[in-house]
Specification:
Structural class: alpha/beta
Number of domains: 2
Bound molecules: adenosine-5'-diphosphate
Distance between the termini: 65 Å
CATH topology of the largest domain: Rossmann fold
Number of helices: 14
Strand content: 5-15%
CATH superfamily of the largest domain: P-loop containing nucleotide triphosphate hydrolases
C-alpha cells in the first residue's frame, strides 16, 4: 500500500522511457541491417535469453518486499514507542523496554536472514544477465568483427568502432525495453493491492430515506432479536437482544467487561450490521436510511475518544473554527469548567503555547463535543470514568439538565449514575438478563441488586473505616 502511489508515477515514467528506447532502437537497427544483418543476432539474442529472467526477478522482488513488510512494521512500531509521549511513563517505570529491544533485535535478525536468503538468488540472476552481455554481445561480436577485418577484409577499422558501438547500443536499449515492460507488470502487482482497497465495498450499505432532524418529535429506536459476532468463526457477542427506546428516555447499559455493551452501541450507530435480527428507527429498518443522516441522530462520547492537536474550538465543534459558534463554545467551556480559550491549541505538537489537558479535562472536552451538537440522541460510553467524584456529580447534573429533552443511552460501571435512568438493561455474555428501573431491579434481588449492593458496601466500608 505504501508503494502504490509511487508505483503509479513509475508506470508513467516507464511509458516515456519505452517511447525513447523504441525510437533509438529503430534507428540503430536500420543502420546495422544496412551494414551487416548478421550483427543483429549478437545484439538481439542475449536479450531474448534474459527476458524470462527479468520477469522472474520482478516477481521475486515483489515477493521479497512482501516478506520484509511484517518485520519492517515491527521495527517501526518499536521506534514509534520510543518517541511517542504516551509510552514515556511505562518506559521509565517498567521493564517493557526489555520486551521492545527483544522484539526489535528479533525483527532485525529476521530482516537480515531474509536479505541473506534472497541475496543468493539475486546474485544468480545478476550474474546471468552480465554473462549474457559480456560473452555474447562483447566477446562474440568482437571476434566476428575482427575476423571480418583481418581475414575477410570486409570492414575497415573505422567500421569496427561504429558497428561495435551500434551493437552495444541496440543491446542496451533492447535490454532496457525488456526490463521496462515487466516492470509495468510488476508495478501492477502493487497497484492491484491499492485497487483492491479502493474497490472494497462497504458491507454497511446506504439507504435512500433522509432523516430531517429538525422535524423530529416522536421517534423510537428498536432492536428485534439481534445477534452478532465479529468474525464468522468467532463467538456470538450479542445474542437475541430485544430493546425499545422512546424519544427522551434515559437508558443505562450495565454489565461486566466484555458483556457486549459497546458492541450494542456500535450496531446502533451502524458501524456493523447484525448477523440476524434487525434494528428499526421509527418503525423502519435502519438500513433504509441514508447513513449520514442516520448517524447525525447521534452525539457520541466513546471511552477511547481522541483529542486532536488543533484548537479547543475545533476539538469541540469537530469541524472548522467558525465565529458563529464561538459564543456557544465559550459557554460550554465555562459549563464544563475547563479554563481554556477557544483558540488555544490542545497540545504542544504544533504550538509551544499549547495546553496539555489532564485525563479528566480531556474527557470533559469529549462530552462537550457531544453536547454542542444538535443530535437528538446522546450515546455515552463510560462518560465519567476519568472524573473525580465531585466532577462526576456536577457532570451528571448538567448532562441530564442539558440533555433533558434528548434520548440518552449511557454505559456505566458506576451504578450511582444508573439511579437516574428511566430503564436499565443488564447484559451478561451478550444477553439481556435483567431490565427495569433502578428501584424495580433492586426489588427483584437479582444480579443488578447484587452488583449495586457490592458497590455500595465498598463506599460504606470506606466510610466506616474512616469513622473508626
Ligand atoms: P463491553 O463494552 O461490555 O465491555 P464489548 O462490546 O466491548 O464489551 O466486547 C464484547 C466482546 O466482543 C468481548 O469479548 C470483546 O473481546 C469482543 N470484541 C470487541 N470488539 C471486538 C472487535 N473489534 N473484534 C473482535 N472482537 C471484539
Amino acid at each position: 500500500m505504501d508503494s502504490a502511489e509511487k508505483k503509479v508515477l513509475d508506470v508513467l515514467n516507464i511509458l516515456v522511457s519505452i517511447g525513447t528506447s523504441v525510437i533509438v532502437l529503430i534507428s540503430l537497427l536500420a543502420i546495422i541491417t544496412v551494414m551487416d544483418p548478421v550483427l543483429l543476432v549478437f545484439s538481439v539474442m542475449p536479450v531474448l535469453f534474459s527476458l524470462p529472467l527479468s520477469m522472474i526477478r520482478n516477481n521475486f522482488n515483489y515477493k521479497m518486499e512482501n516478506d520484509l513488510v511484517l518485520d519492517n512494521r515491527k521495527v517501526n512500531y518499536v521506534k514509534k514507542i520510543y518517541y511517542e509521549k504516551n509510552y514515556a511513563k511505562d518506559l521509565r517505570m517498567t521493564k517493557i523496554g526489555n520486551v521492545l529491544s527483544d522484539r526489535f533485535r528479533q525483527s532485525v535478525e529476521n530482516l537480515s536472514n531474509l536479505q541473506r536468503k534472497y541475496g543468493k538468488k539475486k546474485w544468480f540472476l545478476g550474474f546471468w544477465e552480465t554473462f549474457n552481455q559480456l560473452i555474447i554481445v562483447i566477446y562474440v561480436s568482437y571476434v566476428y568483427l575482427i575476423y571480418n577485418i583481418l581475414v575477410v577484409r570486409k570492414f575497415s577499422i573505422g567500421d569496427f568502432s561504429a558497428m561495435f558501438s551500434a551493437v552495444r547500443n541496440v543491446d542496451m536499449n533492447l535490454r532496457r525495453l525488456m526490463q521496462l515492460i515487466p516492470q509495468i507488470q510488476n508495478n501492477g502487482l502493487y497497484i492491484d493491492n491499492f485497487l483492491m482497497l479502493m474497490n472494497y465495498e462497504n458491507k454497511v450499505t446506504d439507504g435512500p430515506v433522509e432523516i430531517k432532524i429538525d422535524a423530529l418529535k416522536e421517534y423510537s429506536l428498536e432492536l428485534k432479536n439481534v445477534s452478532f459476532r465479529y468474525s464468522p468463526n468467532g463467538e456470538e457477542v450479542l445474542r437475541n437482544v430485544d430493546m425499545r427506546i422512546k424519544a427522551g428516555e434515559k437508558i443505562a447499559l450495565v454489565g461486566h467487561n466484555g458483556a457486549g455493551k459497546t458492541t450494542l452501541v456500535k450496531l446502533l450507530l451502524r458501524f456493523y450490521d447484525p448477523d440476524s435480527g434487525e434494528l428499526y428507527f421509527n418503525g423502519k429498518n435502519i438500513k433504509d436510511y441514508n447513513l449520514e443522516s442516520y448517524r447525525n441522530l447521534f452525539g457520541t462520547v466513546f471511552q477511547d475518544f481522541q483529542i486532536y492537536s488543533f484548537s479547543a474550538m475545533e476539538n469541540i465543534l469537530m469541524d472548522r473554527s467558525c465565529d458563529e459558534y464561538r459564543k456557544d463554545v465559550k459557554e460550554i467551556l465555562e459549563l464544563i469548567k475547563v479554563s481554556v480559550d477557544p483558540d488555544n491549541a490542545l497540545s504542544k505538537e504544533f504550538d509551544k503555547e499549547g495546553i496539555v489537558l489532564s485525563g479528566g479535562q480531556s474527557q470533559k472536552i469529549a462530552i462537550a463535543r457531544a453536547l454542542i451538537q444538535d443530535s437528538p440522541v446522546l450515546i455515552l460510553d463510560e462518560p465519567s470514568s476519568s472524573l473525580d467524584p465531585i466532577s462526576e456529580y456536577e457532570m451528571n447534573q448538567y448532562l441530564f439538565e442539558l440533555a433533558k429533552d434528548k434520548t440518552v443511552i449511557f454505559i456505566s460501571h458506576r451504578l450511582s449514575t444508573t439511579v437516574m435512568a428511566d430503564r436499565i438493561y443488564l447484559l451478561e455474555n451478550g444477553e439481556i438478563i435483567e431490565v427495569g428501573s433502578h428501584s424495580e431491579l433492586l426489588n427483584r434481588y437479582g444480579k443488578y441488586a447484587d452488583m449495586f449492593h457490592k458497590q455500595a458496601e465498598k463506599y460504606i466500608d470506606n466510610r466506616n473505616a474512616k469513622d473508626d
